[in-house]
Amino acid sequence: MITLTGNTLTLKDIYHVLYEGEEVQASSESLENVKVSRKSVEKILSDHRVVYGITTGFGKMSDVWIAPDQVEDLQLNLIRSHACGIGEPFPEIVSRAMLLLRVNALLKGFSGVRVEVIQQLIDCLNKGIHPIVPQQGSLGASGDLAPLSHLALVLLGEGEAFYKGERIEGKEALQRENLEPIVLSAKEGLALINGTQAMTAMGVVAYLEAEKLAYQCELISSMTLEGLRGISDAFDEDIHLARGYPEQVGVAQRIRMYIKESELITEQGEVRVQDAYSLRCIPQVHGASWQTLNYVKEKLEIEVNAATDNPLIFDYGKKVISGGNFHGQPIALAMDFLAIAVAELANISERRIERMVNPQLSDLPAFLCANPGVESGAMILQYAAASLVSENKTLAHPASVDSIPSSANQEDHVSMGTIGSRHAYQIIQNTRYVLATELFCAMQAVEFRGIDQMAPRTRKAYDHGRKVAASITGDRVFAKDIEKLSNCLKEDHWNGILITQ
């Protein structure tokens, strides 16, 4: 059980909730803060104070006074009118993350919602009622208004949800778990949708997958080094300490551990004096991507514990401030940076694939064929990897450099962070396919060299991979092999093989 406080959620906690089904509960202290904040909202109503989103309309209509008997209608109309999401839904795991992050933010006690709203979010999370949220339609400022409105609909018994493998009406999902729809009161609709939880949820899932992929890159490239009889000197610790980047030092260290005792790895001058950059510069390139991953992790761990709605309530309601914490710029920039960093892992991986399949760049059989000429072997596998790498280059164009005014020019600068997080996630999926292709080719290359000469750890990886994809003994539909290896990289933990420290 993970106890949420609004301030202490970590990416490790999120992983347990998302991927291991860990349930959550609210800390008693955070619930007390929620109650205090709610009393402040009720006092604002009774005092007839003019406060944005509580006794006024929204956005450009913030100057419109709302009568007390229209407060519930105001909040319901807000959710329904803002549920304008478009396109395919976010993956179910991302919807689950949105629930978790939204409840954690509200537990900070700055939002003025009732405990009933908190509990409805927790119940949906713990019982596996995951709102169906369209991916497109958010500008990433004023919060992820459209996506989070679709999330909120399910709490009200509207919209649709994923539930135990089915796509059903939100009302039916609640009924199956004996939950009643809630009726929103003052401030609550705004508090549910004015935040960055769509882009941040997508960003957290993307980061967790990217981190795993970055570690797998090192294992796979180590096998490629063996397949190409790479030179170990380039990974000597002194070289990397001389530059000083800890991430680069770490990559080189893990590569040395992977290739330890390998009889296929060479020393400079033994076969050649220098390797190509795609081999020699693995620590420098992968290390730079790790620097980015560390930056992204830092920003995500701040954002998942941030109050991002508007207005925020302080000092027992004496201070209610309309600000801009909903603006997604910090996450937008982080997601664009993540997209570029992961795209580079694919970029250099594809160049290693080319070195294995191109007979002009190695002494391996042309395209790793069993019978070159009659068969084409891995020729088009490199084409497909190159296509994904080029697609990544277009997806890596930063979303955060764009902005477009909205709400009658009241909201005149937006982050596009949700677009950035979606693009980063797509790049990660593409990169996994590229790495699956490199793994497939590397396994074939070491077979030509002699698997009995492999390092103990890479040999374990080879044996693991061969359970998924067989050797190239003749041409076949290799797309099936790449799909299976990609799924293996995504779902399997490679326990006892992967070095993650």
From TrEMBL:
Q: What is its EC number?
A: 4.3.1.3
Q: Where is it chiefly localized?
A: cytoplasm
Q: Where is this cross-link: 5-imidazolinone (Ala-Gly)?
A: 141-143
Q: Which residues carry this modification: 2,3-didehydroalanine (Ser)?
A: 142
Q: Where found in the cell?
A: Cytoplasm
User: Per the record's keyword annotation, is Disulfide bond included, yes or no?
Assistant: no
Q: Does the keyword Magnesium apply?
A: no
Sorted UniProt keywords: Cytoplasm, Histidine metabolism, Lyase
What EC class does the entry list?
Answer: lyase
Homology family? Belongs to the PAL/histidase family.
The name under which this protein is listed is: Histidine ammonia-lyase
The organism of origin for this protein = Pseudalkalibacillus berkeleyi
